[in-house]
Write a structure and sequence with these properties.
Helix content: over 70%
Order of helices and strands: HHHHHHHHHH
Mean pLDDT: 77
Number of helices: 10
Oligomer: single chain
Largest sheet: none
Number of strands: 0
Structural class: mainly alpha
């Protein structure tokens, strides 16, 4: 039975192979257009499926649960008693003593820090050109050695020194250092101050000489005093500058810029005051009141006399008109003449 089944299977396979070969030939002879038509016919139609909205499940909110547990509190029965007045005063004294100790410690640390800072800064300044110009090698070496000794003392024996000791040591070093810095500063300030002082002297002398002509209302005594003071200031400045030029740069200066400014300031103030004094206004002419009143009285008498004369003349004219039969026109003409004469008399009186 087994061999027969194998043969049948072989024949079936052969038939299938032949059919496949036939299909290949058929496909080879078929044109591309025909192939596309065939594929389009064989492609199944698209299936349209309706979309159905699916509702999302509701979100659950997390809830916090508070668990409370009762505590069992027990009172010891030993309440704190209030402090007495003596205890309060004692506490205040203790706090006051602690505060004083803290303040003293801070002051000590500040004094120590200031001394240390000055040692470092002054040692660096000794190398500046301005300090070297007003000091010699011996002066700089002496101060450097002193700074080194005080620095060693600061970190060794004087580490726990008092505030007063730190300040005393600081003042000793600063006395020598400030003298050098002062000479260096004066070497820069003094020539400029002298230059300004001499410019003021020349300007003031020239202007004061012109005041007699341009400002005759100024008091001659005040002008003379100012000029004398400026001349004395110039002589003093010449003497001081000559003495200073004889000293070396490493010595203490005999003329300071501050001294020059203090001496010059009062002269400048007086000079500006006289220079800015305005010309006085001319006095007002006052009229004599007695003469004016007398003139007014004379004018009043003249008017009264004139009025009386007019009345007399008018009466005479009336009588003449009645007696001689003068017409009214002539009377009016006479009255006008009288008025004209009266006005002329008044003008003559005035």
């Amino acid at each position: 039975k087994s061999p027969k089944r194998k043969k049948a299977n072989n024949s079936t396979n052969a038939t299938t192979v032949g059919a496949n070969a036939t299909d290949v030939e058929t496909n080879a002879t078929t044109t591309p257009d025909e192939t596309n038509v065939t594929e389009a016919e064989e492609t199944p139609a698209e299936v349209v499926v309706d979309e159905v909205e699916v509702e999302e499940p509701p979100k659950m909110k997390a809830r916090r649960r508070v668990h409370r547990t009762l505590l069992d509190v027990k009172i010891s029965g030993l309440p704190m008693e209030p402090l007495t007045e003596t205890q309060i005063e004692s506490s205040i004294r203790v706090l006051g003593d602690l505060r004083k100790k803290d303040d003293a410690k801070r002051a000590q640390e500040a004094a120590k820090s200031n001394l240390e800072a000055y040692i470092y800064s002054m040692r660096a300044k000794l190398d500046d050109e301005s300090i070297q110009e007003v000091t010699d090698e011996e002066q700089r070496t002496t101060l450097k050695d002193l700074l080194m000794d005080k620095e060693d003392w600061l970190y060794m024996d004087g580490a726990d020194a008092s505030t007063e000791e730190f300040k005393k040591t600081h003042n000793e070093l600063q006395t020598q250092g400030d003298a050098m810095e002062f000479r260096a500063a004066e070497l820069m300030r003094r020539p400029e101050t002298i230059k300004k002082a001499r410019a003021f002297i020349e300007k003031a002398k020239v202007e004061i000489e012109t005041w007699a002509e341009k400002k005759p209302w100024l008091n001659a005594t005040h002008t003379t005093e100012l000029l004398e003071g400026i001349i004395q200031f110039e002589s003093w400045l010449d003497e001081k500058e000559e003495a200073q030029n004889k000293l070396s740069k490493t010595e203490t200066p005999s003329l300071e810029s501050t001294e020059i400014k203090i001496t010059q300031r009062p002269l400048e103030a007086k000079f500006k005051k006289l220079k800015n004094k305005p010309k006085p206004k001319p006095p007002k002419v006052e009229t004599n009141t007695t003469d004016t009143n007398a003139t007014d009285a004379n004018a009043t008498d003249a008017n009264a006399t004139t009025v009386g004369g007019q009345e007399d003349r008018a009466a005479s004219a009336g009588e003449a008109a009645d007696g001689e039969g003068v017409v009214e026109e002539d009377a009016e003409n006479i009255a006008e003449d009288v008025d004209a004469a009266t006005n002329n008399d008044v003008k003559d009186e005035l």
